[in-house]
Amino acid sequence: MKVIIVGPGAFGIKHLDGIKNIDGVDVVALVGRSLEKTQQVANEYGIPQVFTDLEEALKIEADAVILCTPTQQHATQSIQCMKAGKHVQVEIPLADSWADSEEVVKVQRETGLTCMVGHTRRFNPSHQWVHQKITAGELNIQQMDVQTYFFRRKNINAKGEARSWTDHLLWHHAAHTVDLFAYQSGCKVVKANAIQGPIHPELGIALDMSIQLLAENGAICTLSLSFNNDGPLGTFFRYICDNGTYIARYDDLVNGKEEAIDVSNVAVSMNGIELQDREFFTAIKEGREPNSSVGQVLGCYKVLHDLEQQLNAQ
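The structure corresponding to this sequence follows.
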């Protein structure tokens, strides 16, 4: 399978590292804004072709595209790739508006191509372990308590480099938890509330936010997000269930007594991005809908849209 990677930044490199471990997949081109930086990454990973124009890259022989570009480009580029006949995996979030989210799903249905969104939490072994217990009937979520904390008072990426675009707590970071909560509870979110702190004068976004969710089955979720937090950094998930409490910190999982749970045998890798990519390629080969398809995650973006309306009215 021949794949084009778009975006040689922090997440593009995460995908390149994951794909190295997957047989039968070749990255045939890398697309980026800066020719020099893109060529440097291509040389490091042995990628034969480099482009600074996505439209030109889509003309080469390739089966699929992985988009690791700024949030504001995700919907447009996903549609562009599908209309060029390519399967698409787009990094989270699918879009930063409800209208754009709907349009991507519309084009996916029209083309019949695979279009998957990088909701990595569905694939992390720690969350997979909990999901398997839920689907086996051993656990039911009563409450999820989630903290998503970064220190980003400046416009920088995960590598500490300057960004050309602005990240967003609601449309990006909250998307992970809103989708995961619906996925783990097994039903849609029927009520959602949000409040946010002051708007940053330069970034134009709130650096602190609090979200409450209610699932159709009565499970609740409380999500706290901040770009003001000076450590520890990351996202921490507490699952309060009818039969145990579990805390996920990236790929580490412990119970409520902080006793470690071995998740090394949950999947073929401990790398969530690699597992996400494996699902993408396997779904294409098998002609089936992937886990985290645009259709499956669309409900998440409706919730984000509704929350945005609330916040704009405050």
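The longest strand covers residues 141-149.
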